[in-house]
Amino acid sequence: MTLKPFYFPAKRKTTIFLLTAAATATVAAVSQTSNSAEIHGFVRTARAVSTVASTIVDYELSLRGLQRDSDQYRQTIPQVHLRCAKRFLKLCEANRGFYVKAGQFVASQRVIPKEYSSTLSALQDQVAPLPYNVIKEVLKDNLGPDFSDMFLSVDEQPIAAASIAQVHHAVLKSGHEVAIKVQYPWIEQQMNFDTRTMYFLSKTIGLLYPQYRFEWLPSAFAESMSSELDFVEEAKNSERAAKNFYNNKMVRVPHVFWELTTRQVLTMQFCSGHKIDDLDFLNQIGVDPEKVAKSLMELFAEMIFVHGYIHGDPHPGNILVSPEGCNGFSLVLLDHAVYRELDEEFRKDFCKLWEALILKDSKKTMVLGERFGAGKFSRYLPIIFTGTTIESKYALGTSVEEKETMKKELKSLVFEDLSSFMESVPADFIAIMRAE
């Protein structure tokens, strides 16, 4: 069999050429600068551009000639997604810093292909810490050269390391156990460089594939990251959350020690516990996972429907299960850097949406979906929030027949549909979807 030569459309060929030229230019720029920070930034950009270019080629070559509604397309696309997701995972691991955070952010988006979310979720546990001598300099700059006099002890080995900071256990002179969150010294400069790269790449993808509109993703990410870099704002968010949950005995928010808190250092009460998805730990302390899941749902329902103030990064590492509590356990809510305050009118409409979902009022669901900007995707809102189809007779749960109907409906969706949906709905809606 003779294979026909494959040609990229002129527009895509030009854009791929520009990507390649951009990668070459960054390599050339590296050789012309002696600034180590600039060199590091250029190398990181070259890696990112190269990854995106190779991903575009992979999709083009793998899917050429395949009809989007064909079985062959449906069989091939998950394989391409997985290959490309692994490619982006390597990029995030190599570039570290904000790329790790960006990978975590993408993994938390419920509408991206599962191959990306499952692959990139590995980034939550793969951040290597910095040596303590680097962290010590940040502490000196923020708390004073004699900062160690304020503590009985500071553990040099971190208890947690994330993409922008790491956490050390310490004991104050008063005897209080604290957790000190220390920002990496180079992270803000790196963020400015990396976000520009992300904007460039998202616009490039949009030029190649107008149906894949990703501009909302770097915008949402940059907004959340600017909040995460100011630990004073995080401390204020933490205190507001603590006030909101003051009467909820199942939720604990660590106390902030303001005299030891700055823009780059956050000192808070140390709360012991394990990740909420650590089933071995739950079995060890004799706690029913279903009770924990129920408490978690009630926690976020209270955020959405009562306070209108939602935690913006609700992954398992930020919610601990502590063996202390009135029912044998409590939930410890960590990392209050990013919150979303819901618009009051939006919140009222969202309450009405849930009422319509529970009462199986399909007409009202569609009307509210239109109001949220979901358009033709309004019929999928029951699937997103309750796991049922819009025609389902059940408020929660589905019959075997309805599950088959749901599978067929979801198979009819392609990725550009999801991209269009995410671009159309308001930011408040996306924030709730991350928390669901």
TrEMBL record:
Protein's name according to its UniProt entry: ABC1 atypical kinase-like domain-containing protein
Stretches assigned to the ABC1 atypical kinase-like domain: 123-365
Signal peptide: 1-29
Family the UniProt entry places it in: Belongs to the protein kinase superfamily. ADCK protein kinase family.
UniProt superkingdom: Eukaryota
Keywords annotated in UniProt: Signal
Annotated InterPro entries: ABC1_dom (IPR004147), ADCK1_dom (IPR045307), Kinase-like_dom_sf (IPR011009), Mito_struct-func_regulator (IPR051130)
